[in-house]
Structures are given as C-alpha cells and as structure tokens.
Automatic annotation (TrEMBL):
<dbReference type="InterPro" id="IPR029063">
    <property type="entry name" value="SAM-dependent_MTases_sf"/>
</dbReference>
<protein>
    <recommendedName>
        <fullName>Methyltransferase FkbM domain-containing protein</fullName>
    </recommendedName>
</protein>
C-alpha cells in the first residue's frame, strides 16, 4: 500500500508535468530530480536496514546518522562518502588539535558531532538558522555523549568572529551562498587571521568568487578543493543493487559544482 509520502511525491510530479506555461524540458528535469531524491531516500532506508545507522567509512566512521536529514541527502552520509574530498581536511583539523571549531550551517550535526568525536579536547560551536536543524544537532550530540562540548546556536554574525582566538580556532562554513556576505574581513577583521574551510556556491557568477578569494590572497594560503570520484566497489552492500540505485547512493543532491576553499592563515 502506498504511503502518504509516496502519494505526495506522485501529486507533486503530476503538478509539475501539468504546468501549462512551463517548458517541457524543464518540467521533465524537475520531475526527474524530484523522483531521484525520493529514490535516494529509499536507498538510504535500505542501507539503514542492512547495516544500521553508523557511518561505514571515512573520518567519522561509527557516527550515528539520524534517519532523517535536516537538509539534503542521507545515503552518502551513511556510507561515509559524503563530501569525501574533505576527508584529508578533517584529518588535518583533528591532527592540528584546535580548541574551538565553529561550524556555521551545521544542519543535523553530521560535521559538528563528528568533529567533537575526533577532537575530544575541543568545543564545537554549531550554528544553524533552522530550528529543526538545531534540535537534531543537540539530540545527536547527546546521543554520542558530547552534548557538553557541542554548543548550538542560531544565526552567526560578523561580531562573533571577533571573539575567536586565531591560534586555536577553526571555522567550517557551509551557508548556501551567504558566505560572500558573512566571510568578509572588512566587516570582521579577525577573519584575516583565522583558518577556515568555506563551501562556494552560485558558481555561474565566477567574478563574485574571484573577488571573494581576492579578499584573502595576502592573508591566507588558498586551496580550491574540487569534488572527487566515488568507488562503488568499496561497498559490498551496494553490489546487488540496480546500477541506478548504486549511483544514487553517492548522489549528494547538488545542482552544480560546489567546490570548497581551504584558507590557511599565514602566520609570521
């Protein structure tokens, strides 16, 4: 018997296809994305059923993944392939031993709680403007026994950067395009001294990001991190799935390239 969620997906697909004023190609594309996102949640449910809710691989292996996401995909997080191009950065942050990590745009706490487990000496400050995301982060932190070290907040402001010690702090920022306004040393001078990892969005407007990176060329060593490949063969539990489902197990729901910018402050 179909669930209410399945019925809602079907209704939405029919609504898109029935839009009289829309381009047919655009209708088909939006319907494909809708159905692919739905199918990817079924793949995630299969992974939960087969191996539980623990991350299978990568620097956060063993982290419990909430069975609902505050934002975006689930299956890659369960597999541990989510943003796997950042795994070396996570290892660097853990080895560097920062005392404070600020996670701006924390969603359900995947990075905030994962980093709390990797840095037992650190306080993780997790910020998200979504109430549900903050609730999920608190619950995940409590589940893993790090609720005392994961401090959850709402909107992060320019003035908040000024309270961070550049020698012991790291900033991890993923805020869907708002980074251009927030990560601005003219409004928060302490940014010129902080180590940061920032996801870049809205890349069709390339000049915007050239100007963004220019802000830090004199104060930081800059490294752009592009998306990497994924290896289906590394996960035996995927081998009996249809090839489309195998691909969806790695799909991160992105509409286009969202590279990361690693910014390491140049210290005298």
């Amino acid at each position: 018997m179909a669930t209410d969620y399945q019925h809602s997906i079907r209704r939405r697909a029919l609504e898109i296809l029935g839009e009289q004023e829309s381009d047919v190609g655009d209708q088909l594309y939006r319907t494909l994305r809708l159905l692919a996102r739905y199918r990817s949640t079924l793949v995630a449910n299969t992974l939960f059923a087969r191996g539980g809710d623990k991350v299978r691989s990568g620097p956060f292996a063993g982290l419990a993944v909430p069975r609902q996401s505050a934002e975006g995909c689930l299956a890659p997080k369960v597999l541990g392939t989510y943003e796997s191009e950042l795994h070396p950065v996570i290892e660097h942050v853990a080895a560097r031993g920062y005392r404070t990590v600020v996670n701006i745009g924390s969603a359900e706490g995947y990075y905030a709680v994962g980093l709390a487990l990797r840095l037992p000496q650190a306080t993780i400050r997790a910020y998200d403007i979504d109430d549900n995301a903050r609730r999920m982060t608190r619950e995940l932190a409590e589940h893993h026994g790090v609720g005392d070290r994961v401090v959850v907040g709402g909107e992060f402001a320019h003035a908040d950067f000024q309270a961070l010690d550049p020698e012991t702090s790291f900033v991890f920022c993923d805020i869907e395009g708002a980074e251009v306004d927030l990560i601005d040393p003219s409004r928060a001078p302490n940014l010129a001294r902080l180590d940061m990892l920032v996801e870049l969005h809205n890349l069709p407007d390339i000049p915007t990001y050239q100007r963004f990176m220019a802000r830090f060329r004199d104060s930081h060593r800059l490294a752009v991190i592009e998306a990497g490949s994924r290896d289906i063969r590394a996960f035996p539990e995927l081998r009996d799935l249809e090839h489309l489902d195998q691909l969806l197990a790695f799909w991160e729901w992105r509409r286009g390239p969202t590279p990361w910018l690693m910014m390491s402050a140049i210290r005298s």
